[in-house]
Amino acid sequence: MRYVLRFSALLSCIVVLTVVRTSAVAQDTTPLRVAIKPLTPFVIYNDDGTFSSFSIDLWEAIAERNTWGFEYVPLETVADVLEMVRTGDADVGIAGISITREREETLDFSQPMFNAGLQIMTNTNGSAPGLDLLLRFFSPSLLLVFIVLFVVIILVGHLVWLVEHKKPEFPDDYLPGKRIVTVADTTSAAFLQERNLLFSTVTTIEEAYPLLESRRADAIVYDAPVLRYTGACDDRGQPFSPVRTTALPCSRTDRCAR
């Protein structure tokens, strides 16, 4: 079962809301303070000081429909957005934040509209792991037999996948022993901690990609839509270095959307 993050309907990934009643907004002309953080492809900080992408477009359409005035409060991390809403320094939060039981105890969320999961991103450049070791111990003819057998197994596996309509997953024992990186104070970090896996953290997901490309990390664990988007192209719309991603199972502590 996939580890599913429930993303809110009011933004793209999620909107963290304090109690904002339409009637109260109609009587109060004070602009709503909207806390945001960068998270491609949902919230993008442009070089000219403006903000764009799906969450921004969705929020502005909702605000226009309800004649709400607002101003953005740009932040850098999920923790900053949560804390600003929690303390009342912001009225609304738009960012890639998953809905968890713990967060629902102190924050109000809109209805979820985006079901996603955590994924692993790995680098596919270079030779296959262990290939050099195989070449040392096996003759070319014996190695050919193993290669053919391997191809047959892969073909059969893909046929089973097509029949069962399942997405490919890494084996349960893939992550242990790998150099894993994720973003601090996120459900990705909680997922890894829950499974007692060693990992390093960065402040933003953009800091993780160079670590993977330079092979200073073996895998990135983070929100599925973000990794899938980056696997297709970078912030400049250019193809990202060859990577592969796969879904992770559902957390034992958080609810899974269906």
In a few lines, what is going on in this structure?
With 258 residues, this protein is α/β, with parallel strands linked by helices.
Give the topology.
Layout: E1 4-8, E2 14-17, H1 22-27, E3 32-36, E4 44-45, E5 51-52, H2 54-65, E6 70-74, H3 78-86, E7 92-95, H4 101-104, E8 108-109, E9 112-123, H5 131-137, H6 140-164, E10 180-183, H7 187-194, E11 199-202, H8 208-213, E12 219-223, H9 224-232, E13 243-247
Description:
This protein has 258 residues and is α/β, with parallel strands linked by helices. The chain is built from 9 helices and 13 strands. Residues 1-26, 235-239 and 250-258 have low confidence and may be disordered.
Task: Fill in the keyword field for this structure.
258 residues, alpha/beta, five-stranded mixed sheet, 9 helices, 33% helix
Order of helices and strands: EEHEEEHEHEHEEHHEHEHEHE
Q: State the shape.
A: elongated
Number of helices: 9
Q: In percent, how helical is the residue content?
A: 25-40%
Radius of gyration: 22 Å
User: What is the number of beta strands?
Assistant: 13
Largest sheet: 6 strands, mixed
Q: Uncertain segments of ≥5 residues (pLDDT<50)?
A: 1-26, 235-239, 250-258
Q: Label the structural class.
A: alpha/beta
Distance between the termini: 10 Å
- Average pLDDT reading: 75
Proportion of strand residues: 15-25%
